[in-house]
């Protein structure tokens, strides 16, 4: 048996100081901080739901015929229960909203999230089996301003992090009656050209013809040019909602294009649907998507409909977009102080000094392997320490230690009992950089 294990295909580790930002923990921390700051400013509150959910929630919420439910779920049985590693967060958030009666709190629920999701897809650039989604949902509001705000918070996150070159497309899917009517018309139209469709599209034609609108196959895209257009099937109220939404987006100076073929792969959307793309991140170009899902709560058992709208975005793809925009993200965080000790007495005192520095708020490291002075200095350098405190047997006998400022190389002797105060004052004066 092989003695070393590796990450599963389509998953990856995130390490301190890794060369590539998407694999570097400091970069993740910075990006997560940025996302949360914008969410906070838009008055969203964070919700954290379990990674494990009942399979039926996802199946009923997202729809049996979707790709996610029909072939991408990591699900398993335990006893009589079927569990799924959540493939997305909207259905879980709505479950939590219903379970905890959040509708009884005054006002709308404005919830945001960030966490891992799982889909058994074929891994490729920008597509993983474990990936991370962040998103926001407004539950309890029918007004188109809620749709606009969801789009605004999404756009603000990319903009603030420095992503450029995004492309927002919007559409309206109409109400629960428009979609089946359109589905039928599209099916009837494409049926005439069935022989020209790819095997995948032929299969979709019967089960889920709207998915064919996403096709990348050139001759199918050409065929679609003559196909019935969704907006022609949309009811009056949905149309008015859509016009109002466009007005809000115009007021907020958000640029968008209308795409009558945009339907999104999930079943639960009504009225608004949108997608944010980036041309320079490869074949998996969708950064984020979302829309209004007024039917979802009822689909998962709510006795009352809950009007709701939200977006979900992929964090790994945000990293691709940040890279395309040339944004640099932080690397390993330097320490303030590195304590070097030579000999048993010094080592004992060093251990206490390290803890005293930390109590004083200094980021402090040391190595406990009894290495040579040179080797310990190398470690201090690797940790990018601002100051190194050197405790040698000789210095200690006189109650003195050496402090070296690494940037300048200046070294001075100082009494042991003044070290913490000295370093702290340096930090307070922002001298520790
Ligand atoms: P969806 O709801 O399927 O449109 O997913 C929302 C966003 O999550 C997409 O726009 C992607 O950015 C991201 N995403 C979805 N599936 C994956 C995946 N397998 N790997 C990485 N990111 C994904």
Description of the structure:
- By secondary structure, the chain is α+β, with helices and mostly antiparallel strands.
- It folds into two domains: 21-177 and 235-324, 2-Layer Sandwich (BirA Bifunctional Protein, domain 2), CATH 3.30.930.10; 337-424, Rossmann fold, CATH 3.40.50.800.
- The protein contains 15 helices and 16 strands.
- Strand 9 and strand 10 (286-292) form a beta hairpin.
- The longest helix is centred in the middle third of the chain and has 18 residues, at 144-161.
- Adenosine monophosphate binds at residues 88, 119, 121, 126-128, 131, 133, 265, 286-289, 312-314, 316-317.
Keywords:
single chain; 433 residues; alpha+beta; BirA Bifunctional Protein, domain 2; Rossmann fold; 2 domains; eight-stranded mixed sheet; five-stranded mixed sheet; 15 helices; 16 strands; binds adenosine monophosphate
Task: Draw up the topology in text.
Elements: H1 25-41, E1 45-46, E2 52-54, H2 55-62, H3 67-71, E3 74-78, E4 81-85, H4 90-99, E5 109-118, E6 130-139, H5 144-161, E7 166-172, H6 178-191, H7 199-207, H8 218-225, H9 236-251, E8 257-258, E9 270-278, E10 286-292, H10 296-299, E11 308-314, H11 315-324, E12 337-341, H12 344-359, E13 364-366, H13 373-382, E14 387-391, H14 393-397, E15 400-405, E16 411-415, H15 419-428
Parallel strand pairs: 1-5, 7-8, 12-13, 12-14
Antiparallel strand pairs: 2-4, 3-4, 5-6, 6-11, 7-9, 9-10, 10-11, 14-15, 15-16
Helix pairs in contact: 1-5, 5-9
Bound molecules: adenosine monophosphate.
């Amino acid at each position: 048996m092989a003695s070393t294990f590796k990450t599963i295909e389509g998953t990856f580790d995130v390490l301190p100081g890794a060369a590539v930002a998407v694999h570097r923990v400091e970069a993740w921390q910075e990006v997560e901080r940025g996302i949360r700051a914008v969410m906070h400013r838009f008055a969203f509150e964070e919700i954290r739901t379990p990674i494990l959910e009942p399979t039926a929630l996802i199946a009923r919420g997202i729809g049996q015929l979707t790709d996610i439910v029909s072939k991408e779920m990591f699900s398993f049985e335990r006893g009589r229960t079927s569990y799924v590693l959540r493939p997305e967060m909207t259905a879980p958030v709505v479950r939590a909203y219903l379970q905890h009666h959040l509708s009884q709190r005054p006002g709308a629920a404005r919830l945001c999230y960030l966490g891992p999701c799982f889909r058994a897809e074929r891994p490729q650039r920008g597509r993983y089996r474990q990936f991370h989604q962040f998103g926001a949902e407004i539950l309890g509001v029918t007004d188109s301003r809620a749709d606009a705000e969801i789009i605004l918070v999404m756009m603000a996150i990319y903009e603030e992090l420095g992503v450029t070159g995004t492309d927002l497309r919007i559409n309206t899917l109409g109400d629960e009656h428009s979609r089946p009517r359109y589905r039928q018309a599209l099916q009837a139209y494409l049926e005439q050209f069935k022989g020209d469709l790819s095997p995948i599209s032929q299969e979709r034609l019967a089960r889920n013809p709207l998915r064919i609108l996403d096709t990348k196959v050139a001759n199918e895209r050409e065929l679609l040019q003559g196909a019935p257009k969704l907006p022609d099937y949309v009811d009056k109220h949905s149309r008015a909602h859509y016009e109002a939404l466009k007005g809000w987006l115009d007021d907020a100076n958000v640029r968008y294009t209308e795409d009558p073929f945009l339907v999104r792969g999930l079943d639960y959307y009504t009225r608004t649907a949108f997608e944010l793309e980036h041309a320079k991140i490869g074949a998996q170009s969708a950064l984020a998507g979302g829309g209004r899902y007024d039917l979802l709560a009822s689909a998962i058992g709510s006795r009352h409909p809950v009007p709701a709208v939200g977006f979900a975005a992929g964090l790994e793809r945000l990293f691709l977009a940040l890279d395309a925009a040339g944004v640099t993200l932080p690397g390993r965080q330097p320490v303030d102080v590195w304590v070097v000790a030579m000999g048993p007495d010094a080592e004992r005192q060093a251990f206490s000094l390290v803890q005293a520095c930390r109590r004083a708020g200094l980021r402090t490291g040391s190595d406990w392997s009894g290495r040579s002075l040179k080797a310990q200095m190398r470690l201090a350098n690797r940790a990018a320490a601002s100051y190194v405190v050197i405790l040698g047997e000789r210095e200690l006998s006189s109650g003195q230690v050496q402090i070296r400022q690494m940037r300048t190389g200046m070294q001075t002797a100082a009494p042991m009992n003044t070290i913490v105060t000295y370093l702290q004052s340096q930090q307070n004066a922002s001298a520790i950089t």
